[in-house]
Amino acid sequence: MSETLWIALGLLGGAAFLLLCPLLFLLLVAAVRPDSIQSALRLVLWPCYRIKVLGAEHLPPTGPALVIANHVSWIDGFILAAAVPRRGYALVNATYLGIPILGPLAKRSGMIPVPDRGPKAQRAMLRAAFEVLDRGDVLGLFPEAQISRNGLMGPLYRGIEVIASAREHVPVIPCYLDNLWGSPLSYSGGRFFFKWPSDWRRTVVVSFGPPVERPLTVFSARQAILLAGVSAFEARPPRAKARPLETLDPALPRLHHPSLGLLAASTANFDRGGIRQIGQKPGSVGQAVPGVALRVVGDDGSPLPADTEGRLQARIAGSPSWQDTGLLARIDRDGFVFLSSPIP
């Protein structure tokens, strides 16, 4: 066997050892001291992820709470578990937890497997959610129910409306996981895993917002998550702020405001392997881009519900308040903007 091959095998063996050691350490902690799993997660994530937490004061120190977050990568559940100041639980697609080693670790870290489809999926998800909340614990949900294939937020499932209406006393805390797109565990570059990371130690910003007002809808929940995302974008490192989202297609409809800049854009639709995600809609200028939240308000300045025409306002990273765009528009429940007046 040649010396080069021996070196290659040694490097592969070393990489496998470095990968397995943290996982085995977490499995040991989860088995022996499950209450210490959050501290262990922070330690294991530290070499690759610098986690910056904003708005932790919005999480109640005791009692039940429902945290709803965007879903960008395979490691989101672990990032959220490490960022929440209290021990919590998360509902995760059962398929993801079938991975050897990673699956058992995730379960011991507080991740609860639920089916992603079928007649029993909704009932299983609701039953698991109510059990956690009724114990007075924190529950994390990724209401998109799938990992983003374009770096933007997708539609939210209506299960969160059912949970919120059935447990009115439980605060629903929006959360945005920022700067995970581009990591090997995201779909950036059109694939998961086997790619070169854009940052060796990535700063991930986890931004919690104030509780979503009742009555909660998937639209109001989505808007709250995106608003938390503006704060997260503001805390990004300068290099990450300057990095454009490569899935935004300049050939597709977009909204570029003459004074506020790019506010909304479109991506290609994704339909592969049973995963379908909409990146564009006929007549729409797209969705809010990273670092921007959009809303439609009435004559009195109060936010309007989905598919209601009014004045379009933008909250842009670096600006402390909402700014009027001078445009009339409506935003549908999936976050797509439809203009009713021409761009000035």
UniProtKB/TrEMBL annotation:
The pathway to which it is assigned is:
Lipid metabolism
Fetch the Pfam families from UniProt: Acyltransferase
Does the entry feature the keyword Transferase, yes or no?
A: yes
| Keywords (A to Z) from UniProt | Acyltransferase, Transferase
Output the SUPFAM superfamilies linked to this UniProt entry.
Answer: Acetyl-CoA synthetase-like (SSF56801), Glycerol-3-phosphate (1)-acyltransferase (SSF69593)
Q: Where on the tree of life does the source sit, at the highest rank?
A: Bacteria
**BP GO terms, sorted:** phosphatidic acid biosynthetic process
| GO molecular function terms listed in the Swiss-Prot or TrEMBL record | 1-acylglycerol-3-phosphate O-acyltransferase activity
Q: Which residue numbers delimit the Phospholipid/glycerol acyltransferase domain?
A: 65-180
Name the InterPro entries on file: ANL_N_sf, Plipid/glycerol_acylTrfase
Signal peptide (residue range):
none
Cross-referenced PANTHER family, in alphabetical order? Answer: 1-ACYL-SN-GLYCEROL-3-PHOSPHATE ACYLTRANSFERASE
Q: In its UniProt entry, what is this protein called?
A: Phospholipid/glycerol acyltransferase domain-containing protein
**Organism, per UniProt?**
Tautonia sociabilis
